[in-house]
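Figure caption, in words: inputs first, then the predicted bound structure.
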Amino acid sequence: MSQVSLSRFLIEAQRAGEIGADLRQLIEVVARACKSISHAVSKGALGGVLGDAGTDNVQGEAQKKLDVLSNEILLEANEWGGHLAACASEEMDHSQAIPNRYPKGHYLLLFDPLDGSSNIDVNISVGTIFSVLRCPEGVTDPQDQDFLQPGTAQVAAGYTVYGPSTMLVLTVGNGVHAFTLDREQGSFILTQRNMQIPADTKEFAINMSNQRHWYPPMQRYAGELLAGKTGLRGKDFNMRWVASMVADVHRILTRGGIFIYPRDQKDPGKMGKLRLMYEANPMSMIVEQAGGAATDGYTRILDIQPTQLHQRVAVFLGSRNEVEVVTRYHRESM
Ligand code: P6P
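Bound structure (6-O-phosphono-alpha-D-fructofuranose present):
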């Protein structure tokens, strides 16, 4: 059977009435931007873009040169097409409307341009995460508050993982599909339709160095995982932690697992490390579309009503039956 490119896949989705022409164009533009980011990332030390940019982002984190470059690539790629009204990014304090010299479209695009960028300098997989919302009716000059929509309002979500191969994983609300970048052709080629996360798993992803700061329900759950077959769960577990959400989530999407970044007592005022709007929400839409589950320990992540553009949230996502166990332990502790 002939290969199906991302372009053909999107045209067929449009023909089937799953997406409109402007959402198709938006996704094509984001995919092209990810190809440019993949090219820059893969040059490594030869590209002169490793190391710190010498600036901090709104999160107070030191920006890598590639964080800034990736953000610029996504902004420039999206500004002239007429499909977007505004963008928001982990790397920008506030959202940014499409310049008035270009027509504005009906969508809002949010992204973490280079998630896991602390791994860049040690040559470990990183990725781009993106989320698409509708611009509210009648809003001609979108502001931050126009982005504050729950994850259930997303019309598309995806990520590109820059690993041994560059893969774009996408959902427009009809399943999760994976495309692998063919560098010779410069095209994303469909390599997996309808990815499904196994409901059970023996693999968990968490940064164990924070264990002493966790709240009791998390201590209880992690204790059972570590007890393995000698304990309540009656089976041994394995652990993976790449410290690159895109890489960990892609592994879970491919073979199951549970990804956890809980709130902890190290900084009680912080609701977690990961950001709701452009990390947890897009990943939660993808995970749910693949048959998995995603909560903040108490509530379905996609149901959370955002109050701030860069708000953080605790994340438990992946194999449905594991997410249900750890969420039950949190709810029982209320
Ligand atoms: P820690 C990367 O900085 C990130 O936002 C996610 O991609 C990743 O899962 C997490 O933080 C890693 O956090 O505390 O283990 O470095």
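The mean pLDDT is 96.
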